UniProtKB/TrEMBL annotation:
Keywords: ANK repeat, Signal. ANK repeats lie at residues 94-126, 266-299, 334-366, 407-439, 440-473. It comes from the Bacteria. Coiled coil: none annotated. SUPFAM superfamilies: Ankyrin repeat. This is Uncharacterized protein. Residues 1-19 form the signal peptide. Gene3D superfamilies: Ankyrin repeat-containing domain (1.25.40.20).
């Protein structure tokens, strides 16, 4: 179940990021599509050089952005006729097709257009959901969407995801009055459906936190199961950014005699999910009082406290959990500690708190990466100041942040993955050897020559002392490697300055 909802959260995060940072390509800007441009206006933007098929960093293209903004269908249809927007084969965010997005928005007119151009029902996204299941799981209540699927060959009784959940189970959490559920029943699905793990309609509906809905299901003969505790916890942050689930839903489940300490097949207890969400202090206290273990490791070795350190920016929550944590430096299966996770995705305040309470700044993971590695992993242009603060905290506590990782990669090597000159410039004052070679015999200039999309990154590295005459273990120079870089060749970027 979580496989559907976690990527959706990422999707909304991506859309928010797009809204905050206007892209160079105007057709990738949702703000533009919200102005409801007609076909002629779209043609005018294309004539100015805005690509109608470009994918942004989250793999959304103009057609998808237009669908999500509910722009005029004629404008969207026009985009879908242009080169680079193949309706059958093009995959966008999370490997979703245009049919996924049209169904998600309840746009049956656009669905019919897509079908007329060859759209297929059976293409699964990266989370294993085809358009039918994606629409149900993301709360699409418009039954005309499902009528369209049926009219084009879908048998709802045959549609299940990898967990064995059908559309009725996936959709019931967002179904306020059972209208969608009754529709699915009329199409042959059973209210007594279960997935492979035995989760029934009660368990899936529990994710909504709607006690009245759960009471309604009990009246219909659906029995509560312990798994409902876990699925409710998975919905702790609210569905699609809604109001966080509160204590009453858990108290209700407890009153039914359900086991609060239950775990799922991955070894997660309820707190593994709840601690990641905001405004859950009362709920956390409730589960701790019920004996749920804050130190319980899941199959990957992650404890609820590690998840809190990774995702919860409320340091008061971390403080409330710390007295029950047996080992603040407990590593997971990959050797990451709570501090490593906080460096990658939490705030400087959370990092500072963990260090103050004894987190080891000199811990390394099983690959030999130190904590500076995770600070770089967590860098984003929008939180550059946080990145600086985290590095300074590590440095103040004695970590040599200029030291190479076990494989020889320096922070310069690691920073290349971000393709952000601003990050490299933030690293320059640290005094890292720009000509250091990693275990593959490559300097940062060599690696940049392989991945650069233009000459800016390469010229910057030369300006801070990178030696273009340095050779790899295979006696290749940066010029040799850049000459083989297809992106540079495609963009007609001359690399003669590397000779």
């Amino acid at each position: 179940m979580k496989k559907i909802f976690l990527p959706l959260i990422a999707c909304w995060f991506a859309l928010g990021a797009n809204a905050q940072q206007a892209p160079a390509n105007k057709l990738l800007d949702q703000a533009y599509w919200k102005t409801m441009p007609d076909v002629e206006a779209v043609k005018a933007e294309i004539a100015k050089g805005n690509s109608p098929s470009q994918l942004n960093q989250f793999s959304f293209d103009p057609a998808v952005q237009a669908m999500l903004a509910q722009a005029p269908n004629e404008s969207i249809k026009y985009l879908l006729t242009l080169p680079g927007n193949d309706i059958v084969t093009k995959l966008t965010h999370d490997n979703r097709t245009y049919l996924h997005w049209a169904a998600y928005k309840g746009n049956e007119e656009l669905m019919e257009f897509l079908y007329s151009k060859g759209a297929k029902n059976d293409i699964e996204d990266s989370q294993g959901a085809n358009p039918v299941l994606f629409a149900a799981a993301t709360g699409q209540l418009n039954t005309k969407v499902y009528d369209s699927f049926i009219a084009h060959g879908v048998d709802l009784k045959e549609e299940i995801n990898g967990d064995g959940a059908n559309a009725l189970l996936l959709g019931i959490s967002g179904d306020k009055d059972f209208a969608l559920t009754n529709y699915f029943i009329s199409k042959g699905l059973s209210l007594n459906s279960t997935d492979k793990a035995g989760n029934n309609a009660f368990s899936y509906a529990a994710k909504s936190g709607d006690i009245n809905k759960l009471k309604g299901l009990i009246q219909k003969g659906i029995k509560p199961t312990d798994n409902a505790v876990i699925l409710t916890a998975q919905g702790a942050g609210g569905r699609r950014g809604g109001t966080p689930l509160r204590l009453p839903i858990y108290q209700y489940l407890d009153s039914l005699g359900l086991k609060m300490t239950t775990t799922d097949k991955s070894g997660h207890n309820a707190l593994h999910y709840i601690v990641r969400a905001p405004e859950q202090a009362e709920v956390i206290k409730f589960f701790l009082a019920k004996g749920v273990n804050i130190n319980q490791a899941d199959e990957d070795g992650n404890t609820p406290f590690m998840y809190a350190a990774a995702a919860n920016r409320d340091t008061a929550i971390l403080l409330s959990l710390l007295p029950k944590v047996k080992n603040i430096n407990q590593p997971n299966q990959k050797g990451l500690t709570a501090l490593a996770m906080a460096l990658r995705s939490n705030s400087p305040a959370a990092v500072r708190l963990l260090i103050t309470k004894g987190a080891d700044v000199k811990a390394v993971d099983k690959a030999g990466n130190n904590l500076a590695y995770y600070a770089v992993e967590g860098y984003r242009p929008a939180n550059a100041a946080d990145f600086d603060a985290k590095l300074q905290l590590l440095k103040d506590k004695g970590l040599n942040i200029t030291a190479a990782q076990q494989n020889g990669n320096t922070l310069y090597h690691l920073a290349l993955a971000k393709n952000d000159i601003a990050l490299l410039k933030r690293l320059e004052p640290l005094g890292i050897d720009v000509n250091a070679k990693n275990a593959e015999g490559m300097t940062v200039l060599h690696k940049a020559a392989l991945v650069a999309k233009d000459d800016a990154l390469l010229k910057y590295l030369l300006s801070i002392g990178a030696k273009k005459e340095a050779v790899t273990n295979f006696k290749e120079t940066a010029f040799d490697l850049a000459a083989e870089n297809e992106s540079l060749t495609k963009n007609n970027v001359s690399v003669n300055f590397l000779k």
